Amino acid sequence: MAQRVAVSDGANKKTSRVRVVVRLRPYMGKQDEKDEGPCVRGLDSQNLEIINWRNATETVKYHFDVIHGEQTTQQEVFRSVKPILPHLLSGQNASVFAYGPTGAGKTHTMMGSSDQPGVIPRAVREVFKLVKAKNEDDRWDYSIGMSYLEIYNEKVLDLLSPSSLDLPIREDKDKNILIPGLTHTTISSFSDFDKHFVPASLNRTTASTKLNQRSSRSHAVLLLKVVRTQRTLPHRQQTGKLYLIDLAGSEDNRLTGNQGIRLKESGAINLSLFTLSKVVDSLNSGTAVRVPYRDSKLTRLLQDSLGGSAHSVMITNIAPEYKYYFHTFGALNFASKSKLIVNKPFTCETVAVLPVKRGREGHEAGGSGTEPQKKRQKEERKTEQDGFPSSAQFHSPSEPSVMDRLIALEKLMMNCGDKDKLSMLKDVAQSRKEIQELKEKQREFESKAMLFNREVGERSGVKQDPAFKNSMAPLQRKQSTATKAKQQAVVQPLQVAQLQPLQQLAVVRKQSVCVKKKKLSDQVEPPEGKENMLESCWESQLDTSVLEHSRQKILHILNSGSLKELKGLQQIGDKKAKLILGWREIHGHFRKLDDVVKVEGMMGKRFSSFIKANILSVMGK
Ligand SMILES: Nc1ncnc2c1ncn2[C@@H]1O[C@H](COP(=O)(O)OP(=O)(O)OP(=O)(O)O)[C@@H](O)[C@H]1O
């Protein structure tokens, strides 16, 4: 039996945060989807941007430890994992897990194929290499063992012993997570590992869905244990555990076409991933009384590898296609939260009273030591101290209302119950439809604006947030070839003209009512007595297409303008601009200009005066 030794090594107190790596896979879908362009793209080795779902002219930018673009090789991805592996040899835990939507490349990243091996085979090979190097000049003996399990429908199944039933997850007095009855096999070389791993992987539950022909329906966890024992008395023993986890993908059943058993699996997958996000939330908040690890088998198992004792790397896999958009967005938000978690590595050490058993087959029998629970729980809740910004700061949209909207959406997605989440997904689908309609309107409006600009020989310019400036073309959805074929009209990119200052718009009026520019601004506040006449007939004197154009311009500012842009409208001060932003937060977009009456204080005369002042102002300028 091994006796536990308390570890009080000062060096072990240093914190280690979860490294977050994002991998964008290449296009896998149809040509049509490729023609639309990506909804997300890397900007450099640490930053990426994704289209803002509420306003396609904006993008949301994230900062991560590493961004691996579409062309990244398996070897390059492994470079993000390699540095944590040496910790195993000194009794510390480590974990690597792949997270992301179904079909985004998690299994490719973790398992890979024979010609493109993924993180798991590479990590195992590296651990053997490290041990070999140590063995030559060390005072310790090393042994490596493996376990392999899947969590399917909230059941823990032993992949090395497929006939076994659901296994319990236990915790020892030192908060080590154990699975009594789980096969633990000692392995002596990489080929020995391969011999067990390859057939066991075939036992994993997979099925075909609309999004992925071979979709993992379970979370697969490979556990690699490195035990080192001192050659001389007192035969100290240290155990380092490495979890390599290929999570099942987060799913949208409308996209996967799941029904029956697939739907049930999907429910279990989404629920456990949802719990994982709640755990991340609690760990980040630093105030949670209870981190809900126990709410799912997955989080229970990850307890000592996330926010616990391990060095962790999370690889977030994302896909470029628009159909993955909301899952990609969710995955990025989840990933940016994980950056805030602080792990406290520690050395897990025991004293070997009896000689170490080196049997080929065994069962996980007990824990190896950890530091006291209270101290660790306290440490788990601490947030990152290393100067990285919070998730809210990572979202760097160009103005606060957008950021608030994103945070609100994120909170809703993360905090609502499973049932609510489904209705939330419906809402999101509805919003998506509305965005599409709005975009159509915007395109129509922009092509008109372009036409006007050409007529008056004005040059159009694109307003761009300096923080987002780069040499790349703006990220925007293009029409797929199929849609293009259907549509006759020439559509200008969304960015053009949409964010132009009002001044740059052309003024086109009916010849009969052509009023000089200066006079127009006078008309905003008409002389007494003439107000009624102007109230009733000013609109009828204007060219209808110009009128409509101006209305659309104002509507666009109302729907997507920042606080500053809203305050640039006539008769909108700070308070009104905030009320408009607030209305947008709750209700979304104004469908038509007249909807602005729904904003507090914009009824009756105020409304007509607001409309008139702004239309005339747009035209006058
Ligand atoms: N970086 C990549 N390069 C080339 N092909 C890739 C890459 N990433 C993924 N693929 C391919 O995309 C498809 C889906 O990938 P994969 O099965 O790894 O997704 P997944 O995220 O594990 O999905 P699920 O959660 O449904 O299991 C596979 O055919 C895979 O080979």
Automatic annotation (TrEMBL):
Ranges for domain Kinesin motor: 17-341
Tagged with keyword Coiled coil: yes
Residue ranges of coiled coil: 421-455
UniProt: ATP binding residues: 100-107
Keywords, in A-Z order: ATP-binding, Coiled coil, Cytoplasm, Cytoskeleton, DNA-binding, Microtubule, Motor protein, Nucleotide-binding, Nucleus, Ubl conjugation
Ranges of Polar residues composition bias in the record: 388-399
Cell location: Cytoplasm, Cytoskeleton; Nucleus
Gene Ontology terms for molecular function: ATP binding; DNA binding; microtubule binding; microtubule motor activity
Annotated region described as Disordered, given as residue ranges: 359-400
Protein name: Kinesin-like protein
Organism of derivation: Cottoperca gobio
Gene behind this protein: kif22
